[in-house]
Amino acid sequence: MERTGTVVRLRVAVHHLGRLGLVVATYYASARLGLATGFLKGNVAAVWPPTGVALAVLFLYGTRLWPGIAIGALLVNGTGSAVPFLAACGMAAGNTLEALLGAYLLRRVADFRPSLSRVRDVLALGGLAAGISTLASAAVGVTSLWAAGVIPGHAVLSTGRVWWTGDGLSDLIVAPVILLALGTERVRRGVIGNLEALLMFVAVGALTAAAFFGSAYPYMIIPALAWGAIRFGPKVAATSVLAVSALAVVATTGGHGLFATAGDTHALASLDAFLAVAALMGLVLAAIAAERDAVRNALEAKVAARTAELDATEGRFQALVEGIPDFAIYMLDPDGLVLSWNAGAQRLMGYTASQIVGDSVARLHRPEDVAAGKPAEALRVAREVGRSEEEGWRVRVDGSSFWARVVVTPLLKDGELTGFAKVTQDVTAARDAEAALRQVVVELDAAQRLAHVGSFRVDLAHGEVAYWSDELFRILGLDPSSFHPSFGALLERVHPADRVRVDAAVGAAFHDAVDFEVEARIVREDGEVRVLATSAQIMRDGDGQPRSITGVCQDVTTRKEAEDALVHLAGHDGLTGLPNRTLVLDRLRVALARRGGAPCRTVVFFADIDRFKRLNDQFGHAAGDLILLEIGRRLATAVRPGDTVGRFGGDEFVIVCENLDEAAIAAMASRLMIMVANPISVDGEDVSATVSIGVAVSEPDANRPANETATALLEHADAAMYQAKERGRSRFEIFDARMRAAVETRVQNEGALRRALDRDEIVPYFQPVVDLASGRAVGVEALARWLHPTRGLILPDEFIPLAEESGLIVRLGALVLERACDVVAGWRHASPELSTLELAVNLSTRQLLHRGVVDTVRQALDRSGLPAAALCLEITESVLLDDTDLAASVLGTLKALGVRIALDDFGTGFSSLAYLKRLPVDVLKIDRSFVEGLGTTRDDGAIASGVVDLANAFAMSTVAEGVETIAQAHVVRALGCERAQGYLWSRPLAGDDALRCLRSLPGHPVAERMPA
Asked: What is the pTM of this model?
């Protein structure tokens, strides 16, 4: 027995493991399918299939299979992506919790049936599973991603919304198919039914292909889905919705269809809305049809059973009286006393014939109805009218009540009343079914209200409205009690500006026998304008004449407003609301094109706030934004109507004017400066700001090309603005021939420098760094040189500023760093005496603040094999003025690689102990300007000594630059400086010459070389 029990348990365990494996594989495969149709670079799926799979599996086969969900989710989230492992675990936990919670709510709270044949089951699936349980996955998963640093804090809510929507749609689209396929019996329809179902699927497929791979409107698919749902029930409805969803997702992610035209983010939102409407409508209509069929089948079964009994009963009267147990048939005398009582009456009301015959019929009524005279009133109406029909409560012998339908017929003989024949039927179930059907209609109306979708059907042959949903009344702002709906009345609500377009679309639909889709504004009764998207289908009779029109209307006002807002944001600055760079350039191009050959001027004013960073640092960024907002407002009020005032970003504003003469140009520039110069109140304190303005004028004369581009004109105004800055700020300068020549020269030089980088003409030179205690070369500083093919060696003072201004410094610096690392790594490997040689390379401000600087340094080290500890990156103090926080962050990241950081030219700029305290600096370099006067100038000695003392206080080392005499070397060593570089040992040299110099250095302490 014990062995048999063990074998049974082993088989059960193996069976359970097999199910778990199948769950894992199914979950993983459905996830890969979802990722294969992702938006936003494949990271976001409109429908996340594993959610529906997990819910259906746990509901149908029990929550013991939850480990399969957890393992499958971990495999999906933890492999093939850059998500950290802990974040993947958190996401998998959220996926598992979501499925467990959804299955529990459906089973324990909603009494859910997988057949989806009740509206309450569909609402439970949509509300409890798709609406509530999915919040668990979205909350846990997004929190895990945020905690791991995968997404920033400002993206948490938008990411959670997309997550929740994808999971919820899966519960509405994927889960029903699995529940109906595995949890219900197969439906048999016969050949005709199968052909009709096939026709429906073909119609849905064709409409879907036309909508998402053609130019048709997606919501035209809804009527076909409604047909399938009502005609064939939940299984076909769920399968149709899944097929439509799959085609819609594939088409939209592939760039096809109406939803894909607005960009990934809006496409995802529009697709989600469409899928939700399709899924809810299909399932709800199928459930309504199923409930209706159930009631109808029950009633038909009862009628069939009673009819069979009637046919089997001998005698017409006996069949009528005795053979229908659910009908009470009895006779009354003229005063309402019971004369006869059939078996149906006894069964329905519980009284035997001996108990009721001879008693008043009022005994079968409730006391309050008797007091109100209802029994006598029914007999009076029957006597006077010839028949009485009513519904009301009746009372059984045990005191219980039921809802009865009662027919009373007077019995006449020779015109005289001899009594009444009364038939009573218990219709409580039918009454409850009607109430349930009314509730279904209410719930469908609620679903339409939720989706802002109204529907209608108009019988064109008779001019009558067959159906007009409550939501359509609400969308149009109409009162159902006073408004008679019609298709013409719907067209009358169209905005006058859109009426011609709508009439044309409707006319084409009637004339060409095609469906129509149109998006237009409608005017409500209260005057409010809304945007309505309408899709309708015209049905025709055998002669091709329009018979009816069925359609849906969706209020898309919110979507249109969002689209308009996005269009506005695309061309305007988010802070000031002024036109941004893109829109200003566009308007400037239009102005230049409009100018043509006419003798009028297009003028660009380029205004930059003077010392804005100082204002930002002094009053804070919030105050800085207030200053920018106020200056933008003032500039906008200073110009003429039709002029353009835009913000280019940061503290730069551009004004575009037309038809200004020289005097008007000067007057406009002066007015702009005066408007800005007025004090601005910031937190109760008056703040003064000024602007420097550069002016560029484009006019078709002999000195200026008529086809000058908008970009060139802006560059000229920018150059003039910088001229104004150099000449003292708070002034304006007009771009002239001298500036033009300078710009052209700069463009030529920039082109030459760009070509030099392409031709490898920029090479590193190396200057030794000497340890003063031993006299040995312990390092080299790499310095850029330009080996020009015709000019020869060009020093950095001639091309580094140009590289900084043009942005080429990033590429140049990366090239010098890479080649210097290669050279020094080779020296260290080939020469044992140089095996610890260090390399110092300069980083400019642009390089340091460039987003790829860390990767550039890492790649140079990896490629060359140079140890990170052997590399020292030198920055100047000027980098700290641009963005101290960003500089500190980047330097910290570089420091984490293992490299060292040196502060070059220390003491010549804006030295600050606060900077030294915040920044991870290892070395201070004493500028050559302080070294030159050592031994002769007292101040230089004091500064150099102070730098050394400061470095010691912060545990930093020091390097003296520009040492040219042995006396200077002696002094800097005496001050405590550890290392030095300069012409005393060597000028910067090319690779092989530098290597020979390093090997030839004597290696004696500086003090031993001092004269006696």
From this structure: 0.40
